Protein backbone atom coordinates (compact mmCIF):
# COMPACT_ATOMS: atom_id res chain seq x y z
CA UNK A 1 0.00 0.00 0.00
CA UNK A 2 2.82 2.41 0.92
CA UNK A 3 6.33 2.25 -0.46
CA UNK A 4 9.15 4.64 0.38
CA UNK A 5 12.29 4.37 -1.78
CA UNK A 6 15.69 5.89 -0.94
CA UNK A 7 14.06 8.93 0.67
CA UNK A 8 16.21 11.93 1.59
CA UNK A 9 14.58 14.89 3.35
CA UNK A 10 15.95 18.03 4.97
CA UNK A 11 15.05 21.15 6.88
CA UNK A 12 16.78 23.76 4.77
CA UNK A 13 20.37 22.57 4.37
CA UNK A 14 20.19 20.17 7.29
CA UNK A 15 19.56 16.64 6.02
CA UNK A 16 17.47 14.62 8.50
CA UNK A 17 16.36 11.54 6.54
CA UNK A 18 19.22 9.68 4.83
CA UNK A 19 18.09 7.26 2.13
CA UNK A 20 15.22 5.58 3.99
CA UNK A 21 13.31 2.74 2.31
CA UNK A 22 10.33 0.93 3.81
CA UNK A 23 7.00 -0.55 2.82
CA UNK A 24 3.63 -1.07 4.46
CA UNK A 25 1.30 -3.76 3.17
CA UNK A 26 -2.48 -3.53 3.17
CA UNK A 27 -4.27 -4.34 6.46
CA UNK A 28 -1.15 -4.56 8.62
CA UNK A 29 0.33 -2.51 11.44
CA UNK A 30 3.94 -1.52 10.89
CA UNK A 31 5.70 0.07 13.86
CA UNK A 32 8.54 2.55 13.51
CA UNK A 33 10.55 2.69 16.72
CA UNK A 34 13.57 4.76 17.66
CA UNK A 35 14.91 7.29 20.13
CA UNK A 36 13.99 10.97 20.16
CA UNK A 37 15.62 12.77 17.25
CA UNK A 38 15.92 9.64 15.11
CA UNK A 39 13.85 11.24 12.33
CA UNK A 40 10.61 9.29 12.80
CA UNK A 41 8.23 12.27 12.83
CA UNK A 42 10.14 13.90 9.98
CA UNK A 43 9.59 10.76 7.92
CA UNK A 44 5.83 10.90 8.46
CA UNK A 45 5.77 14.63 7.73
CA UNK A 46 7.69 14.01 4.50
CA UNK A 47 5.21 11.34 3.42
CA UNK A 48 2.43 13.91 4.03
CA UNK A 49 4.36 16.56 2.03
CA UNK A 50 4.78 18.76 5.12
CA UNK A 51 8.57 18.46 4.69
CA UNK A 52 10.15 18.70 1.24
CA UNK A 53 11.71 15.61 -0.33
CA UNK A 54 15.24 16.21 -1.62
CA UNK A 55 15.38 12.89 -3.46
CA UNK A 56 13.73 9.49 -3.48
CA UNK A 57 10.17 8.40 -4.17
CA UNK A 58 6.96 7.73 -2.24
CA UNK A 59 4.21 5.50 -3.66
CA UNK A 60 0.67 4.93 -2.39
CA UNK A 61 -1.31 2.08 -3.94
CA UNK A 62 1.17 2.07 -6.83
CA UNK A 63 0.79 5.79 -7.55
CA UNK A 64 3.71 8.15 -6.95
CA UNK A 65 2.77 10.87 -4.48
CA UNK A 66 6.21 12.40 -3.90
CA UNK A 67 5.30 15.78 -5.40
CA UNK A 68 1.63 15.91 -4.42
CA UNK A 69 0.24 18.46 -1.98
CA UNK A 70 -0.89 17.52 1.51
CA UNK A 71 -4.53 18.07 0.55
CA UNK A 72 -4.18 15.75 -2.46
CA UNK A 73 -2.54 13.10 -0.28
CA UNK A 74 -5.38 13.26 2.26
CA UNK A 75 -7.94 13.00 -0.54
CA UNK A 76 -6.20 9.84 -1.80
CA UNK A 77 -6.81 8.22 1.59
CA UNK A 78 -3.79 8.91 3.84
CA UNK A 79 -4.34 10.65 7.17
CA UNK A 80 -1.93 11.60 9.93
CA UNK A 81 -2.70 11.56 13.65
CA UNK A 82 0.00 14.00 14.76
CA UNK A 83 2.21 13.87 17.83
CA UNK A 84 0.60 15.58 20.86
CA UNK A 85 -2.74 15.42 19.05
CA UNK A 86 -2.76 19.07 17.82
CA UNK A 87 -6.46 19.61 18.38
CA UNK A 88 -8.16 22.98 18.09
CA UNK A 89 -8.51 23.54 21.83
CA UNK A 90 -10.99 26.43 21.74
CA UNK A 91 -13.29 24.55 19.35
CA UNK A 92 -15.81 21.97 20.50
CA UNK A 93 -15.41 18.22 20.18
CA UNK A 94 -17.91 18.14 17.32
CA UNK A 95 -16.23 21.05 15.53
CA UNK A 96 -12.91 19.21 15.69
CA UNK A 97 -14.57 16.15 14.17
CA UNK A 98 -16.00 18.24 11.35
CA UNK A 99 -12.51 19.58 10.61
CA UNK A 100 -11.55 15.99 9.85
CA UNK A 101 -14.11 15.92 7.03
CA UNK A 102 -12.90 19.19 5.50
CA UNK A 103 -11.47 17.70 2.30
CA UNK A 104 -14.42 15.43 1.57
CA UNK A 105 -16.73 16.24 -1.32
CA UNK A 106 -19.52 14.68 -3.35
CA UNK A 107 -23.22 14.83 -3.99
CA UNK A 108 -24.40 13.53 -0.64
CA UNK A 109 -21.41 14.58 1.45
CA UNK A 110 -23.44 16.38 4.13
CA UNK A 111 -25.62 13.33 4.76
CA UNK A 112 -22.55 11.07 4.79
CA UNK A 113 -20.81 13.32 7.33
CA UNK A 114 -23.88 13.27 9.59
CA UNK A 115 -23.89 9.48 9.42
CA UNK A 116 -20.20 9.35 10.27
CA UNK A 117 -20.71 11.66 13.26
CA UNK A 118 -23.43 9.33 14.56
CA UNK A 119 -21.20 6.30 14.04
CA UNK A 120 -18.27 7.92 15.82
CA UNK A 121 -20.43 9.05 18.74
CA UNK A 122 -21.53 5.44 19.08
CA UNK A 123 -17.97 4.10 18.84
CA UNK A 124 -16.65 6.79 21.23
CA UNK A 125 -19.52 7.40 23.69
CA UNK A 126 -17.49 9.86 25.77
CA UNK A 127 -17.05 12.09 22.72
CA UNK A 128 -20.76 12.00 22.05
CA UNK A 129 -21.46 13.00 25.63
CA UNK A 130 -18.99 15.88 25.41
CA UNK A 131 -19.59 17.06 21.86
CA UNK A 132 -20.29 20.66 22.96
CA UNK A 133 -17.25 20.87 25.25
CA UNK A 134 -14.05 22.58 24.17
CA UNK A 135 -11.37 20.07 23.18
CA UNK A 136 -8.91 21.63 25.64
CA UNK A 137 -11.16 20.62 28.54
CA UNK A 138 -10.79 16.89 27.81
CA UNK A 139 -8.32 14.59 29.56
CA UNK A 140 -5.21 13.44 27.69
CA UNK A 141 -6.75 10.09 26.85
CA UNK A 142 -9.99 11.70 25.67
CA UNK A 143 -8.04 14.14 23.52
CA UNK A 144 -6.18 11.23 21.88
CA UNK A 145 -9.50 9.50 21.19
CA UNK A 146 -10.73 12.73 19.61
CA UNK A 147 -7.59 12.97 17.45
CA UNK A 148 -8.18 9.40 16.22
CA UNK A 149 -11.89 10.04 15.66
CA UNK A 150 -11.09 13.26 13.77
CA UNK A 151 -8.79 11.26 11.48
CA UNK A 152 -11.53 8.68 10.94
CA UNK A 153 -13.79 11.45 9.62
CA UNK A 154 -11.45 11.56 6.60
CA UNK A 155 -12.40 7.93 5.83
CA UNK A 156 -8.72 6.99 5.41
CA UNK A 157 -7.21 3.84 3.97
CA UNK A 158 -3.79 4.41 5.54
CA UNK A 159 -3.23 5.87 9.00
CA UNK A 160 0.06 7.52 9.98
CA UNK A 161 0.14 7.67 13.80
CA UNK A 162 2.77 9.69 15.61
CA UNK A 163 3.30 8.73 19.29
CA UNK A 164 -0.39 8.12 20.12
CA UNK A 165 0.41 6.95 23.67
CA UNK A 166 2.76 9.81 24.57
CA UNK A 167 2.17 11.03 28.13
CA UNK A 168 -0.76 8.71 28.80
CA UNK A 169 -1.35 6.47 31.82
CA UNK A 170 -0.83 2.71 31.31
CA UNK A 171 -4.57 1.95 31.37
CA UNK A 172 -5.21 4.56 28.68
CA UNK A 173 -2.24 3.26 26.65
CA UNK A 174 -3.98 -0.11 26.50
CA UNK A 175 -7.22 1.50 25.35
CA UNK A 176 -5.45 3.44 22.58
CA UNK A 177 -3.58 0.33 21.42
CA UNK A 178 -6.86 -1.58 21.33
CA UNK A 179 -8.28 1.19 19.12
CA UNK A 180 -5.30 0.84 16.78
CA UNK A 181 -5.77 -2.94 16.60
CA UNK A 182 -9.44 -2.29 15.81
CA UNK A 183 -8.45 -0.08 12.88
CA UNK A 184 -6.56 -3.02 11.34
CA UNK A 185 -9.49 -5.36 12.02
CA UNK A 186 -11.62 -3.06 9.85
CA UNK A 187 -9.19 -3.72 6.98
CA UNK A 188 -7.29 -0.45 7.30
CA UNK A 189 -3.51 -0.03 7.42
CA UNK A 190 -1.38 1.69 10.07
CA UNK A 191 2.18 3.04 10.11
CA UNK A 192 2.76 3.62 13.81
CA UNK A 193 5.52 5.69 15.42
CA UNK A 194 5.86 4.59 19.02
CA UNK A 195 8.59 5.01 21.64
CA UNK A 196 6.74 2.57 23.89
CA UNK A 197 8.33 -0.47 22.28
CA UNK A 198 6.50 -2.88 24.59
CA UNK A 199 3.14 -1.58 23.36
CA UNK A 200 4.30 -1.40 19.74
CA UNK A 201 5.61 -4.98 19.69
CA UNK A 202 2.33 -6.18 21.13
CA UNK A 203 0.19 -4.88 18.24
CA UNK A 204 2.56 -4.62 15.25
CA UNK A 205 2.99 -7.16 12.47
CA UNK A 206 6.37 -5.78 11.42
CA UNK A 207 8.84 -3.29 12.87
CA UNK A 208 11.43 -0.86 11.55
CA UNK A 209 14.01 0.59 13.91
CA UNK A 210 15.30 4.04 13.03
CA UNK A 211 18.55 5.62 14.20
CA UNK A 212 19.93 9.03 13.15
CA UNK A 213 17.75 9.26 10.06
CA UNK A 214 18.39 5.73 8.81
CA UNK A 215 16.66 2.36 9.08
CA UNK A 216 19.01 0.23 11.18
CA UNK A 217 16.85 -2.86 11.68
CA UNK A 218 13.64 -4.36 10.32
CA UNK A 219 11.64 -7.56 10.48
CA UNK A 220 8.60 -9.30 11.98
CA UNK A 221 7.71 -8.00 15.45
CA UNK A 222 8.13 -11.44 17.02
CA UNK A 223 11.74 -11.54 15.79
CA UNK A 224 12.64 -7.91 16.46
CA UNK A 225 11.82 -8.25 20.15
CA UNK A 226 14.68 -10.76 20.50
CA UNK A 227 17.29 -8.53 18.85
CA UNK A 228 19.92 -7.44 21.41
CA UNK A 229 19.85 -3.84 20.18
CA UNK A 230 16.10 -3.55 20.76
CA UNK A 231 16.38 -5.26 24.14
CA UNK A 232 19.15 -2.92 25.24
CA UNK A 233 17.65 0.35 24.05
CA UNK A 234 13.92 -0.19 24.52
CA UNK A 235 13.27 -3.19 26.74
CA UNK A 236 15.79 -2.80 29.54
CA UNK A 237 18.63 -5.00 28.26
CA UNK A 238 20.26 -8.01 29.83
CA UNK A 239 17.39 -10.40 29.18
CA UNK A 240 17.10 -13.30 26.81
CA UNK A 241 14.20 -13.82 24.43
CA UNK A 242 12.09 -15.59 27.05
CA UNK A 243 12.69 -12.70 29.45
CA UNK A 244 11.52 -10.19 26.89
CA UNK A 245 8.41 -12.21 26.13
CA UNK A 246 7.65 -12.37 29.85
CA UNK A 247 8.15 -8.60 30.16
CA UNK A 248 5.72 -7.98 27.30
CA UNK A 249 3.18 -10.34 28.88
CA UNK A 250 3.52 -8.58 32.24
CA UNK A 251 3.16 -5.14 30.67
CA UNK A 252 0.22 -6.28 28.57
CA UNK A 253 -1.45 -7.59 31.72
CA UNK A 254 -0.79 -4.28 33.44
CA UNK A 255 -2.45 -2.45 30.56
CA UNK A 256 -5.34 -4.89 30.21
CA UNK A 257 -8.82 -3.36 30.26
CA UNK A 258 -11.49 -5.78 31.47
Give an overview in words.
By secondary structure, the protein is of the alpha/beta class. The chain folds into two domains: 2-77 and 162-255, Rossmann fold (3-Layer(aba) Sandwich), CATH 3.40.50.300; 89-155, no CATH class. Helix content is 41%, strand content 24%. The protein has eleven helices and ten strands. The protein has helices at residues 40-47, 70-76, 93-100, 109-123, 125-129, 140-152, 170-185, 197-203, 221-224, 228-234, 241-255, and strands spanning 2-11, 14-24, 29-33, 53-60, 63-64, 78-81, 158-162, 189-193, 206-211, 214-220. The strands form two sheets. The chain has a six-stranded mixed beta sheet with strand order 6-7-8-3-9-10, with helices on both faces. Strand 9 and strand 10 (214-220) form a beta hairpin. Helix 3 runs parallel beside helix 6 and helix 8 packs across helix 11. It is globular and about 45 Å long.
Per DSSP E runs of 2 or more residues, the count of β-strands stands at: 10
Measure the end-to-end span. 34 Å
Total domain units: 2
Shape: globular
CATH topology of the largest domain: Rossmann fold
CATH class of the largest domain: Alpha Beta
Radius of gyration: 18 Å
Residue fraction in strands: 15-25%
**What is the mean predicted local confidence, pLDDT?**
88
Low-pLDDT ranges: 238-258
Amino acid sequence: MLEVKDLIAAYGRIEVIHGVSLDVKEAEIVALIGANGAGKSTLLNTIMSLVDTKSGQIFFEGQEITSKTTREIVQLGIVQVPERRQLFGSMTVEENLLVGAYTRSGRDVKAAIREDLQRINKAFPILGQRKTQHAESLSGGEQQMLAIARAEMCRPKLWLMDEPTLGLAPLVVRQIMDLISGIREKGHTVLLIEQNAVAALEVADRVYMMETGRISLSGPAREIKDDPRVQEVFLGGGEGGEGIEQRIRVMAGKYRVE
